[in-house]
Amino acid sequence: WLKDRPKSSLNQSVSVAAMAERYAISKESVVEGAVVPEQYKLKVQLNALLAEEKKQALAAKKKERSEQRHALKMRTLKYDKEYAAHQKKLVALRREAKLAGNFFVEPEAKLLFVIRITGIMKLSPKPRKVLQLLRLKQLHNGVFLKVNKPILNMLKLVQPYVTYGYPSLKTTRELIYKRGFGKVNKSRIPLTDNEIITNSLSDCGIFGMEDLIHEIFTVGPYFKQASNFLWPFKLSAPKGGFICKRHGFCEQRGGDWGNREELVNELIRRMM
């Protein structure tokens, strides 16, 4: 059957087997009554001790992972209830305002998603530096930012080169699940396992994808660490293209740069 397998997969399986063999604990044993050197007896005893320690460590690791997964599942259900309760409260307040004949002022957004829409040609030094500080070093890069005065002042300096808005929970979740990469030892690592997030952000109480999404979307106390852990999102050119990059989104003739508020969700979906 080995002849039918592709050469690359065969080499890969051989290399994996060689690695496993290298780190394996040998299962040598001494036949009862046999005369063997004292050194060999000691080696067999040490191997038995190591095998027992390894077995206990694996069992402890398995139990810990099982407990972590259950805790993450419970927290995910709690987050879902929290999001639903918040939306229900907003709907009730809107209805109450409408019945009283008043206007309902929507709560101010806490989270921004900023996308760079221009390249590096004819870019003056100051906006270039600001874009670098915002980690928007390439065309169609995107980052999550907290809404505060310093960030808004920085966005004013680079407004003709970026578009931004307030992402919804669905958009935030899709971005992290579909285009999310983590920064591990200065390397861009795909978020294929909760273990990657746990190893980097366990000090912040973040042990999985849903914890990370909750911290980003609610702009929690560890937002800075969570946002810095996420590598800037590399998005595609939008399906259907831009309208006109030279003009602002809020201009009468229409354009692309500037604040889109909730309409940024539609642009992000076209760029994913």
What does this structure look like?
The chain is of the alpha+beta class and 272 residues long. It is 51% helix and 11% strand. The protein contains nine helices and seven strands. The strands form two sheets. The protein has a five-stranded mixed β-sheet with strand order 6-2-1-3-7, with no helix packed on it. It has a two-stranded antiparallel sheet with strand order 4-5. Helix 5 (169-179) crosses helix 7 (209-217). The longest helix has 62 residues, at 38-99. The two termini are 42 Å apart. The relative contact order is 0.10.
Summarize the structure.
With 272 residues, this protein is α+β, with helices and mostly antiparallel strands. The chain starts with 6 loop residues before the first helix and ends with a helix. The radius of gyration is 27 Å and the shape is elongated.
Lateral arrangement of strands in the main beta sheet = 6-2-1-3-7
Largest sheet report? 5 strands, mixed
Unreliable runs: none
N to C succession of SSEs: HHEHEHEHEEHHHEEH
Helicity range: 40-55%
Distance from N terminus to C terminus (CA atoms, Å) equals 42 Å
Number of strands: 7
Structural class: alpha+beta
Strand content: 5-15%
If you average the pLDDT, what whole number results?
A: 87
Principal-axes shape call: elongated
